[in-house]
């Protein structure tokens, strides 16, 4: 079953074509990694999927629903950013459940949801702290909790580990992998790090200059790179 389907997607800023006809499908419970060098259009593609940027042409579907012109808040998508994007004045619990607060969910129910999600991320002891009192790894767990609590149809991650040091990066990567295996959440994950891509992905789209240079499983891309660019980028043996 295809959960997310993108076809003929283009995005221009003025005369600059940042995305040139992107076609991508992500199966239900799939973990697609968009892998490519800085500036190739990965964040732009995520932002268009999230509805933070409008597509210039093409279409985006979730299940049988065309969401190309749907507002970001009505897309049933949650995004995790490199910079965490937490509300500094709110507690961890309130950061995690703010989307429920907006929907008018009662306080006791929100607290319970915050506790459940925090336990799955091993941050239950931090619920009453503010973001400034947390390490980078803990902040990113809060941001992941905020996405999880919404049970969206699709999770988007934009280089969520890039601000973490090596040890935390490996720990948080393993956490994301465990969560994906447990929750089975359909995800699109952006990185320029090939080992991250190989570890997490069910499918990889290698991107170059606004296009998908190759789409396949990690093993296929590693063993049979479609071009010299892909081979160099994923570190395939010559
Ligand atoms: P990546 O995430 O792969 O590093 P981006 O999607 O951020 O790449 O950017 C791709 C290209 O689009 C870059 O050349 C960038 O300068 C350009 N770009 C991104 N956002 C805008 C914008 N709002 N206006 C003009 N150009 C942009
Ligand atoms: Mg980017």
UniProtKB/TrEMBL annotation:
Q: Which GO terms describe its cellular component?
A: ATP-binding cassette (ABC) transporter complex, substrate-binding subunit-containing
Q: Which GO MF terms does the UniProt record name?
A: ABC-type transporter activity; ATP binding; ATP hydrolysis activity
Q: Give the subcellular location.
A: Cell inner membrane
Q: What's the protein's topology in the membrane?
A: Peripheral membrane protein
Q: What processes in GO biological process is this protein linked to?
A: carbohydrate transport
> What are the coiled-coil residue ranges?
none
Task: Just give the chief location class.
Answer: membrane
Keywords, in A-Z order: ATP-binding, Nucleotide-binding, Sugar transport, Transport
Q: Which residues form the ABC transporter domain?
A: 4-234
Family to which the UniProt record says this protein belongs: Belongs to the ABC transporter superfamily.
Q: What is this protein called?
A: Multiple sugar transport system ATP-binding protein
- Origin organism of this chain? Devosia enhydra
What is the organism lineage in this UniProt record?
Bacteria, Pseudomonadati, Pseudomonadota, Alphaproteobacteria, Hyphomicrobiales
- Which part of the entire protein is covered? 1 to 238 of 366
């Amino acid at each position: 079953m295809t959960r997310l389907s993108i076809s003929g997607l283009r995005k221009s800023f003025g005369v600059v074509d940042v995305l040139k006809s992107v076609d991508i499908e992500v199966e239900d419970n799939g973990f697609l990694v968009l892998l490519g060098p800085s500036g190739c259009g990965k964040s732009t593609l995520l932002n268009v999927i999230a509805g933070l940027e409008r597509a210039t042409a093409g279409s985006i579907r979730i299940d049988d629903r065309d969401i190309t012109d749907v507002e970001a808040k009505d897309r049933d998508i949650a995004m995790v950013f490199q910079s965490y994007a937490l509300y500094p004045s709110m507690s961890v619990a309130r950061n995690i459940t703010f989307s429920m607060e907006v929907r008018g969910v009662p306080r006791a129910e929100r607290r319970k949801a915050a506790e459940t999600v925090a336990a799955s991320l091993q941050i239950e002891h931090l619920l009453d702290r503010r973001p400034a009192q947390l390490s980078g790894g803990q902040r990113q767990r809060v941001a992941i909790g905020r996405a999880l609590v919404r049970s969206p149809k699709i999770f988007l991650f934009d280089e969520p580990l890039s601000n973490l040091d090596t040890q935390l990066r490996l720990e948080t990567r393993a956490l994301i992998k465990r969560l994906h295996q447990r929750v089975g959440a359909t995800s699109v994950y952006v990185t320029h790090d090939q080992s991250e891509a190989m570890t997490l992905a069910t499918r990889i789209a290698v991107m170059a200059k606004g296009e998908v240079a190759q789409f396949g499983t990690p093993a296929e891309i590693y063993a049979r790179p479609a071009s010299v660019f892909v081979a160099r980028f994923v570190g395939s043996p010559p």
